Amino acid sequence: MADPGLFTPASVTWQLHGDPMMWVAGVRALYLQALHPRAVRGVMQNSDFRRDAWGRLMRTAHFVGTTTYGTTEAAERAGARVRKIHSMLTVTDPDTGERYGVDEPELLRWVHCAEIDSYLHVLRRSGVPLTDAQADRYIAEQRVGARLVGLDPETVPAGRAELAAYFEAVRPRLAAGPEARAVDDFLLRPPTHPLLVPARELLWRRVALLAYAALPPYAHELYGRPAPAPTAVTRRLRTTGALLRRIPARLRWQLPPQHILRAMARLGPHARPAPEKLGP
Predict the structure, then answer these.
(1) Using alpha carbons only, what angle is made at residue 205 by residues 204 and 210, rounded to the nearest 5 degrees?
(2) What is the pLDDT of residues 62-78, one digit of tens each?
(3) Would you give the end-to-end CA distance of the chain in angstroms?
(4) Residues of 172-190 as b/e, b for ≥16 C-beta within 10 angstroms?
């Protein structure tokens, strides 16, 4: 019998992660993650973010795709690789000289919560029909992902109420420091070939602005840059989601590394993800 992986087609995760608005959600997650000074410092000191932010986004997408749609072995292998890399990386606080690891539970928990909050928020707000009970199931399922990156699953939120309480508790530690400003500047104007600047302004900048607009109000306050009214943001998210979902799914899923198509080949056509398949 074919291995369905860690989540299986019966999960909310399986049905949601094939939606094209996950790309907007991923950029929102970067904006949100950058507001934790200790966490974003780890990114800036241990990666070439300014020159390889697209690569970082693609690596995150590959990890999410592998752990969602890959075999159990592939998902566990991806998690082990992330844990090994994190275990070797340290960060230095420029103000105090303190050195700490990027695999501190506090930092891993922030990255995890910022991601699942962004995925859930953008997809629901852009028109994916998801009940509150299904949203709670999704957050609980993501404890599997938390374990893969090295967290104790019992220490991460298992539902909307716990996730909201977590963000309320962590807010006093958030700030838009120099590293967050660098992330904001990059996401608005990523370096590109001069011939591609018009495309960057036409396409990428719109994605970045929409992702920024979808942030919670406290994030806009920290960055000091206003966002459109919530109703206008919701309208833009729904319009963008509707346009992207008109692209045939099989065409979208052709993009490498084809996680979803490989899962369907392994398990059969019934494994095709679609939010309308979700049970109550």
Answers:
(1) 100
(2) 999 999 999 999 999 99
(3) 27
(4) eebebbebbebbbebbeeb
CA-based nearest residue to 167, from 176, 183, 156:
156
Per-residue confidence (pLDDT) for residue 84, from 0 to 100 = 96
Count the residues in the chain: 280
Neighbours of 280 (CB within 10 A): 6
pTM attached to this predicted model: 0.93
| Number of C-beta neighbours around residue 269 at 10 A | 7
Min mean pLDDT across 40-54, 76-90, 266-280 is at 40-54
Cβ atoms of 146 and 112 within 8 Å: the answer is: yes
In the 3-class helix/strand/coil scheme, how is the chain assigned residue by residue?
A: CCCCCCCCCCCHHHHHCCCCCHHHHHHHHHHHHCCCHHHHHHHHHHCCHHHHHHHHHHHHHHHHHHHHHCCHHHHHHHHHHHHHHHHCCEEECCCCCCEEECCCHHHHHHHHHHHHHHHHHHHHHCCCCCCHHHHHHHHHHCHHHHHHCCCCHHHCCCCHHHHHHHHHHHHHHCCCCHHHHHHHHHHHCCCCCHHHHHHHHHHHHHHHHHHHHCCCHHHHHHHCCCCCCHHHHHHHHHHHHHHHHCCCHHHHCCCCCCHHHHHHHHHCHHHCCCHHHCCC
